[in-house]
Design brief:
GO molecular function, one term: aldehyde dehydrogenase [NAD(P)+] activity
Largest sheet: 7 strands, mixed
Organism: Paraburkholderia ribeironis
EC number: 1.2.1.5
CATH superfamily of the largest domain: Aldehyde Dehydrogenase, Chain A, domain 1
Structural class: alpha/beta
CATH architecture of the largest domain: 3-Layer(aba) Sandwich
Protein name: Aldehyde dehydrogenase PuuC
CATH class of the largest domain: Alpha Beta
Number of helices: 16
Keywords: Oxidoreductase
Bound molecules: nicotinamide-adenine-dinucleotide
Strand content: 15-25%
Number of strands: 22
CATH topology of the largest domain: Aldehyde Dehydrogenase, Chain A, domain 1
Strand order of the largest sheet: 15-17-18-13-12-19-20
């Protein structure tokens, strides 16, 4: 595959420093292309290109025109679903069927925001007589987007889709571990008629290109998805310029299962919520809290399901692919070795197929039982296919466990009792709650984001449009 370059001001360009970064295929750990290693000078060029677009053709485009460009982009992405899926699967290691779903979701994000572009409006406010007061929503200007490696297409789509729909010009710094699909989509955006400079992509390391973007004085808003530690750094850098930041930082999301739940319906969802993307999902259902009366029977069933899971290269299209890189693999191993050291029992695990290259970054999905509340495995994000099972005796204990981490992104509640569904949904601390389902299949339309260490601000759905705009109040005194 040919060398990947930055996309700045409608042109492909090498890094100003001339350096590159090797891109590894997580399925075999081997390099297959290189990326431009972006510098502060590259970020500066991209921010200036975005500003010119904002002050020029893109800033002048009507909301309906912006919607039409996004709709054409959505059609182009849909037409190239297979090509994008192949690229994403190789780059991230995820099974092909999942990468196809991600490409379909990307098309849907652009479709949704295409339709939303001319539906956002302000209000008129009752005020003293002799005045008319109205509010209008304006784009921030140039928005910065720092994208992680776990769902490059989807996270790019949700954030850039909403930012472009509202008239911002974007500078994107995708993750050094996986950014090929995002570069391809930038090319499709140009084909869809997006004016030069309205979308710029600078690849490179976080501490170089990412940090240069977060602290650039020409950026008016930052959207970051990734780890809490980096989120804090990005916030500090953005604060130097008083730039607002939307943060999505992952979680330790609980699924609470009561004895009266439909366990046949719950079982496959409990498994897929942690196995999808090899557990490298911010909203992974990484804790299962089970009412004591059904703890052993449900654990048995979960154990059987885990034992049937098969892990292999992305093109083998199994239940699970490899982890993204050796660092992530080591992180998961460290968690599992802590579990072993502290006597936490492994209830079951899946299997890495023998044909999987030894140099790939594989990890068998693992079910841990009786994880003590307060243990690292019960509180911290592993970001791998590791499910922690815990038991509870009543609603209050379930809630204490569910709310017993610093995170608050997503929660699942499984029960047939309607009053209990609502009691818990109101008391659980999280940005989304799913009752008798989990994740609602991605839900492009559903506002998404966390509380506490999971971050703040909302992406996805119509709600995201508010985050990518600023409200201006205009008071007219006419007597
Ligand atoms: P990270 O937060 O460091 O990286 C995410 C993005 O931020 C990447 O594009 C990266 O280049 C950029 N970045 C890194 N350092 C930066 C800096 N100083 N300034 C600006 N941008 C910077 O995540 P990681 O190191 O790739 O993964 C570590 C852990 O983070 C994972 O194990 C997981 O727990 C968590 N994570 C969460 C998500 C999520 O979706 N919430 C995604 C990826 C990783």
């Amino acid at each position: 595959m040919e060398e990947a370059r930055h996309f700045i001001g409608g042109e492909w360009c090498a890094a100003s420093g001339g350096e590159t970064i090797a891109v590894l295929d997580p399925s075999d750990g081997q390099p297959f292309t290189v990326l431009a290693r972006g510098t502060a000078a590259d970020i500066d060029a991209a921010v200036h290109a975005a500003r010119r677009a904002f002050d020029g053709a893109w800033g002048a485009a009507s909301a309906a025109e912006r919607g039409r460009v996004l709709y054409r982009l959505s059609m182009l992405v849909a037409a190239r679903q297979e090509e994008l899926a192949q690229l994403e699967a190789r780059d991230t290691g995820k099974p092909l069927k999942q990468a196809r779903g991600d490409a379909a979701a990307l098309a849907r994000y652009f479709e949704f925001y295409a339709g939303a572009a001319d539906k956002l409006h302000g209000e008129t406010l009752p005020y003293q007589s002799g005045y008319t007061v109205l509010t209008i929503r304006e784009p921030h200007g140039v928005t910065g987007h720092i994208v992680p490696w776990n769902y490059p297409m989807q996270i790019f789509g949700r954030s850039v889709g909403a930012a472009l729909a509202t008239g911002n010009a974007c500078v994107v710094k995708p993750a050094e571990d996986a950014c090929l699909s995002v570069l391809r989509v930038a090319e499709l955006a140009a084909e869809a008629g997006l004016p030069v400079g309205a979308l710029n992509i600078v690849t490179g390391y976080g501490h170089e290109a990412g940090a240069a973007l977060a602290r650039h004085p020409g950026i008016d808003h930052i959207s970051f998805t990734g780890s809490p530690e980096t989120g804090k750094l990005v916030t500090q850098m953005a604060a130097e310029n008083h730039v607002p930041v939307t943060l999505e930082l992952g979680g330790k999301s609980p699924q609470i299962v009561f004895a009266d739940a439909d366990l046949d319906a719950a079982l496959p969802v409990l498994v897929s919520a942690i196995v999808q993307n090899a557990g490298q999902t911010c909203s992974a259902g990484s804790r299962v809290l089970i009412e004591r009366a059904i703890y052993e029977p449900l654990l048995d069933r979960l154990g059987n399901a885990f034992q049937a899971l098969r892990v292999g290269p992305s093109h083998a299209d199994l239940d699970c692919g490899p982890l993204i890189n050796a660092k992530q693999q080591q992180r998961v191993w460290d968690f599992l070795s802590d579990a072993q050291h502290d006597g936490i029992a492994m209830a079951a695990h899946g299997e890495v197929i023998p044909e999987a290259p030894e140099s790939g970054f594989y990890q068998a999905p693992t079910l841990l039982r009786d994880v003590p509340a307060g243990h690292r495995l019960a509180c911290d994000e592993v970001f791998g296919p590791v499910l922690a099972a815990m038991s509870f005796s009543d609603e209050d204990e379930a809630l204490a466990l569910a709310n017993g981490t610093q995170y608050g992104l997503v929660a699942g509640i499984w029960t047939r009792d309607g009053a209990r569904q609502m009691r818990l949904a109101r008391r659980v601390r999280s940005g989304q709650v799913f009752i008798n389902n989990y994740g609602a299949g991605g839900g492009v339309e559903l506002p998404f984001g966390g509380v506490r260490h999971s971050g703040h601000g909302r992406e996805k759905g119509f709600e995201a449009l508010y985050g990518f705009t600023v409200l201006k109040t205009i008071a007219i005194r006419h007597g």
